[in-house]
Amino acid sequence: MKVLILAAGLGKRMKSKYPKVMHKILEKELVNWVIDTAKELNPTEIGVVLGYKGELVEKILPEGIKIFYQKEQLGTGHAVMSAEEFLNDEDILILYGDTPLITASTLSKLIDKHKNTNADATILTAILDNPAGYGRIVKDENGKFINIVEDADASEEEKKIKEINSGFVIFKGDKLKNALKELKPNNNQGEYYLTDVPKMLENVETYVLEDFSEALGINNRIQLTNAEKILRKRILENLMLNGVTITDPDTVYIGPDVKIGQDTIIYPMTFIYGKTEIGEDCEIGPMTRINNCQIGNNVKILRSECEDAIVKDNVSVGPYSRLRTGTVLNEKVKIGNYVETKKTIVGKGSKAQHLTYLGDATIGEDVNIGAGTITCNYDGKNKHKTFIGDRVFVGSNTALVAPVKIENDVLIGAGSTITEDIPEGSLALGRARQVTKENWVFNKREKGE
Ligand code: UD1
Ligand code: CA
């Protein structure tokens, strides 16, 4: 079986500069929701039909997707014609790029019915109380499929039909290919409707959705938000049923590709997106945002931002820390209040607990980075590296001017500005000596100054 996703429409009602399918739910574009659902079905190939600003959509598609262009948007049937070379004898499942709620398990049932009945086409339908706007499924008194009538073309009688076309349909590839040759735009919208194809075939089946919300399409931004609510709830409930505590699901947002281990607790106002993986027994949040991070077991992250970082077991982060791209925190590291890290590897058991910036640095094991330490990694033009060995003690308010190398077991006095490499086991002091003038203040006062 192949899958073809129609995503050429402009999506006028979104009132957007960008193609509709690029709008995001939980940080993932609509079209990628549909592609990832399609992938779960293990098709031989996935194709996408692009049109309006398709070059922008192309950039966000994963590898291995066949792309077709529909130059003018002349209807859903025309969109499939634009991918004519994609069609062969295999079954072809048509999905819409603006319907991200559909699940692979429902599609599998549709595919099973299609195979078991040896149908030419099997249409996924839904029964809606308010079917306005959708194509209606017209059947005879025996329940046999006759036709799909689009809302714009329906008679008053037909508009009363509650069974609607979800848009998802599977065809025998060769039958679809032949029928498309005969398809005409004879309707009120002057479009080539894909929905006019089934009536041209002999053996058409329907499969009714159990949960009609899976058919909800997104045409405006209110529907975008409503779809997000449904998908968010689905993800959170699935995590909770699999052993993750989410103390306040109303304020927690978790993306569809996030994995979280058993007995981890997610506190309120927490946002976890991208390909993040979190281990077991962690405490995440409140007020934390994590994107594309690998997080081990028994990690605590409190009121912090983490992006593209790797965090090993038994680490604690925050409150108010920021782990930026390329951060690696090894086991038992402690990153505390107002600490920022970027492209920095911190060795096992090391600590940077207060008010620190660590950028382009490699830090050994059991290092103590004092409050207010800054790696001065940028000279205005280039970034430079800082190397710190094992068991180094960096006194508070130290500026490490990179490139600089500090070997094992060094002790740096507080308030130092370090511009030169320091050999193993040394004490380094890089500050002006203190001058104390006794009675200086009293003498001034006596003179009335
Ligand atoms: C379509 C169906 C309707 C169904 C409804 C379900 C047709 C004619 N109608 O209507 O029966 O009830 O979906 O949501 O198929 N697209 C293209 N090229 C085009 C036109 C559309 O690629 O020329 C794509 C759009 O990007 C979108 C999808 O096809 O992803 C559906 O198009 P849309 O215009 O939203 O169809 P509906 O009017 O919703
Ligand atoms: Ca639509």
Helix/sheet category = alpha/beta
User: What composes the largest sheet?
Assistant: 16 strands, parallel
- Summed over residues and divided by their number, the pLDDT gives a mean of 97
What is the end-to-end distance?
Answer: 94 Å
Determine the strand fraction and express it as a percent band.
25-35%
Shape: elongated
Task: Give the % helix.
Answer: 10-25%
Number of helices: 8
Describe the structure.
By secondary structure, the chain is α/β, with parallel strands linked by helices. The chain contains 8 helices and 39 strands. The protein is elongated. The model has no long low-confidence stretch (mean pLDDT 97). Calcium ion is lined by residues 98, 217, 219.
Short description:
Helix content is 18%, strand content 31%. The chain has 449 residues and is an alpha/beta fold.
Note the main attributes of this structure.
binds uridine-diphosphate-N-acetylglucosamine; single chain; alpha/beta; elongated; 16-stranded parallel sheet; 31% strand; nine-stranded parallel sheet; 18% helix
How are the secondary structure elements laid out?
Layout: E1 2-7, E2 24-25, E3 28-29, H1 30-39, E4 45-50, H2 54-60, E5 66-69, H3 76-81, E6 91-96, H4 104-117, E7 121-127, E8 136-139, E9 145-149, H5 156-159, E10 163-172, H6 173-182, E11 204-208, H7 221-241, E12 245-246, E13 253-254, E14 259-260, E15 265-266, E16 270-273, E17 277-278, E18 283-284, E19 288-291, E20 294-295, E21 300-301, E22 305-307, E23 310-311, E24 316-317, E25 321-323, E26 328-329, E27 334-342, E28 345-346, E29 351-359, E30 361-363, E31 368-369, E32 374-376, E33 386-388, E34 393-394, E35 399-401, E36 404-406, E37 411-412, E38 417-418, E39 427-428, H8 440-446
Parallel strand pairs: 1-4, 1-6, 4-5, 7-11, 12-15, 13-16, 14-17, 15-18, 16-19, 17-20, 18-21, 19-22, 20-23, 21-24, 22-25, 23-26, 24-27, 25-27, 26-28, 27-29, 28-30, 29-31, 30-33, 31-34, 32-35, 33-36, 34-37, 35-38, 37-39
Antiparallel strand pairs: 2-3, 6-10, 7-10, 8-9
The protein binds uridine-diphosphate-N-acetylglucosamine and calcium ion.
